[in-house]
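Record pair follows.
FIRST:
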Amino acid sequence: MQQLLHPIPLTLAVVGFLLLLWPPRHLCQDRALAALVGLYGFCALSFLVSVAPVWTRLGDTTGHPAIGILGAFGTVVAQVSLQPIVVVYWVLPREKARRVARLCLGAGAVVILALTVLFLQLPNFGQTTPQGITAMYIHSGVYRTYLVLYVIAYTVGQTVLAVGCWTAARRTDQAWIARGLRTVGTGAVLTFGFSAVRLAGVGATLFGLSHPAPAAESFAWICADGGNSLVLIGFFIPTLALRVVPHVRVWARAHRDYRSLAPLWEAVHHAVPAIALRSAPTPTAVWLHFWDPTWRLYRRAVEIRDGQWALRNHLEESVRSAAEQRRRVVGLTGAELAYAVTADQLRAVLATHSHNGFAQTSTEYADADIREEIRTPDDDVRALLRIAAHFNTSPAEQEVATSWT
């Protein structure tokens, strides 16, 4: 049962760890995120160590067949120590959360040290497996102490986590955080079944009673792996809603806006090819362009503005006047009028440029009057998108300069 269930939380832990790790600079700014990344990382290690091939390879490499149990228990204790840290940084003031975090990390370090000391006193009974090590070592007093210490630390940690999550869920006004905390609390309580079976096995050995049936072992791992899966999912729910989803939306919006500016950019680029920044395509550049389209979007906006500037000598006053009159008739005013007229001017300018013409009575782009309202690159992108919308939907026939030479 253990080997069947472990891949589920292992996959959740690895996926969560990799998703939360990027970009790394956020870890220095967000203590809760750093603790969460560590939580997922230690959880992944605990399940990875308990996979039979990895367990065997560790034993062969270190010369101690049971070393896997120290790795599994040590990483689980580290995970349990980090779990409440995530919660306190979510719900408590930073200074108070820092004090609680130090207490949790200190307690976890003490338990791991004690487990290491006890492990070094375990007898060597030969080759072990993740499923059979407890049955092999349960008659050893040192192992029983080792197991009881681990189970008590694990249960205390999960109890603190469950109580803290349900308390915090009632106090927070953010729905996604509340849902995630309740899921975590439920998973923490479910793991109590694993602790109960392990303590029952130790008690049966001490008092000469019959050991729990094989079905109890399956029940223990269902509780342990199921509970851990819920904890991992619960911690990721608010992170997904508050961090990952917004990043995905920004990524999708940048790709959409980049494509929306394409017709306008292509028209301007055809007239003024020099606006495009030429760079050698590399696998890294292609990968970054896909995963971080914001730079390309901003670059496209700059190139369109460069093209506008290069074509400014072809602007004709009569085109602007006619466009303003026509656009006002359909009800456009204010900034939207300026963007629509600018789109008409660009179409006329491109036609004039293609005929090598020039303006008899020069003017400015209509949106020049509202450029002061553009304060950030995002503002400029939004403005160009509105120009592009009118440019893309303009009729094929537009007024051009009234006189060409």
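SECOND:
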Amino acid sequence: MSALASHRKSRARTGIAGMAGLRTNTPAVGFTTAALASVTLLSTQSANAAPVEPKPSVEEVQKKVDDLYRQAGTATEKYNKAKETSAEKRREVDQLLDDAAQRTEKLNESRRTLGNYAAAQYRTGAVTPTAAMLFADSPQDYFEQTQLMDRMTDRQRGVIEDYEAQRAEAAKQRTVATKSLEALTLSQKALRTSKQTVQSKLSEARSLLSKLTAEEKARLAAIERQREEEARRKAEAKAEEEAEARARAEAERKRLEQERAQTPSGDTGTGTGTGTGTGTSGDSAYATKAAKVLSFARSQLGKPYVWGAAGPSSYDCSGLTQAAWKAAGVDLPRTTWDQVKVGERIATKDLLPGDLVFFYDDISHVGIYIGDGMMIHAPKPGANVREESIYYMPIYGSVRPA
């Protein structure tokens, strides 16, 4: 029994010692587990985190900024159109309100006349047809009663008919005015939307440019110079074509002069029939107007581009072309979309100074051709009115306004 007791005691001591050892090692095991859990958690968070987008290249920024400026140009033309429409609707509403006020005065005059008839007849002690007419819900229905028409004097009947006509016209005017006010509200909403769009696009473009480093800005400037150089080379080729065309025209003019000099005075057979007389006269008239257009446009060089502006201190693209042609006595619409519809469509190879050149598929930009492949235009925000190659942007088409 003692041996058995001794053995049990020994096992008990061993078990207690083992438990003590386990408790001693527990903190270390706990720390290691926590550390591993933390590492696993961080790894999981890193794996689940949104990947950082790579920084766009300078070329991508340049393309994006150009696109934003073009979109801002489109929104600017929408703003100009909405502003023009809003102004027209405002004038229309003001006119309607003036007409309504005049008609109301006429209606009140007719009502006063009817009131005088009613008062006079009331003093005689009779309930008169005029009084019944004045206070009836529907005078027109009352007119249809033969007995009333028979009892009224011609003068009373005329006043009542005039009153009813005035009231009907006033109601019609109110309906028209209500619709015009609704249209005005819509145009003003479109105006605000276009303005917000322009500001948003320009803000986004400025944000992209502000994030560029000095080195990236230098690279962007180099890309821009390369683009300008390519456009300049195309303009020079266009200038050579025009010089050759002028030389051919001058040679033809001299040939015709020589023929006329050699033709006897009594023989007029070769003096007409070429068609050049009328054409020259037409070209001369256009050249006179174009000279005024170009003179005005050159006097605006250096003035800042401001979207929605039409002078005199700043311009957007269509504001400049409108103001320039107005100086030549020709009224152009406000937007590029309407200006492109005015006058004669011209091929690029047939451009003359003064013609309008439109750009991009959405016709969101316009410039004034000055010859030799060059134009004067208000380019974009942050730039001034300047001369530039027409090949700097994709050409949509051209127009000769007059």
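COMMENT: Residues 57 and 126 are 95 Å apart (CA to CA).
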